[in-house]
């Protein structure tokens, strides 16, 4: 069951597009830092989707409510790395994960945007939803304060694996923040499954972009 009355927001146009015929470099500004993101047209994961902009903006504006300083943060489906970079600027210890074919561009963006900063360098790791979680991220070693996920739900067959991954990493005390553009019935079906398992609140809606931002936590008996 969903709780809360979400705030209605607009994704701010705080970036300057730079266009080339193959690689687009997008310039963003969050938390007083200019962030340059290289996108690749080859992979879904290598483009900045609206959910990442929405959650980056929300975290920047709500630092008292969600204080990331020195917190352990895992981003699943990190894509270009924009949100992981923002979380890093906000002081988090970030692990950015995605599929193997996305990691090169992800690592490039993260290292170029954090190399000159006095902050915790994000770790970039492979994570295939639902696969090898116990081996790669054993519960005894890995506990995260926040799980971040943006635009991870779209037309694909891995939604059960995605949900299983969220369940695996969400321990008591962990906050899952999920921002997604809602386009298809599958998006709402996933939301329904999520809210059957977790305490789920809609924090914000961005109607112009069809983005909803949700907070989920483990139900403690």
TrEMBL record:
SUPFAM superfamilies: S-adenosyl-L-methionine-dependent methyltransferases (SSF53335). Keywords: Methyltransferase, S-adenosyl-L-methionine, Transferase. Gene3D superfamilies: Vaccinia Virus protein VP39. GO terms for molecular function: methyltransferase activity. GO terms for biological process: methylation. It comes from the Eukaryota. PANTHER family: HEPATOCELLULAR CARCINOMA-ASSOCIATED ANTIGEN, PROTEIN-LYSINE METHYLTRANSFERASE METTL21C. This is MT21C methyltransferase. The gene is Mettl21c.
């Amino acid at each position: 069951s969903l709780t809360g009355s979400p705030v209605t927001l607009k994704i701010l146009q705080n970036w300057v597009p730079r266009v080339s015929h193959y690689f687009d470099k997008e310039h963003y500004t969050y938390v007083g830092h200019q962030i340059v993101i290289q996108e690749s047209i080859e992979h879904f994961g290598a483009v900045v989707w609206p959910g990442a902009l929405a959650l980056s903006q929300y975290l920047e504006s709500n630092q008292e409510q969600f204080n990331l300083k020195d917190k352990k943060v895992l981003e699943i489906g990190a894509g270009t790395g924009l949100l992981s970079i923002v979380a890093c600027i906000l002081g988090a210890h970030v692990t950015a994960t995605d599929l193997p074919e996305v990691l090169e561009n992800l690592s490039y963006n993260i290292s170029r945007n954090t190399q000159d900063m006095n902050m915790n360098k994000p770790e970039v790791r492979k994570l295939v939803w639902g696969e090898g979680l116990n081996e790669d991220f054993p519960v005894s070693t890995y506990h995260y304060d926040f799980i971040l996920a943006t635009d991870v739900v779209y037309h694909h067959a891995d939604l059960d694996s995605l949900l299983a991954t969220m369940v695996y990493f969400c321990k008591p005390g962990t906050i899952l923040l999920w921002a997604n553009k809602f386009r298809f019935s599958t998006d709402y079906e996933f939301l329904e499954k999520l809210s059957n398992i977790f305490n789920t609140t809609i924090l914000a809606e961005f109607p112009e972009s069809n983005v909803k931002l949700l907070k989920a936590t483990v139900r403690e008996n």
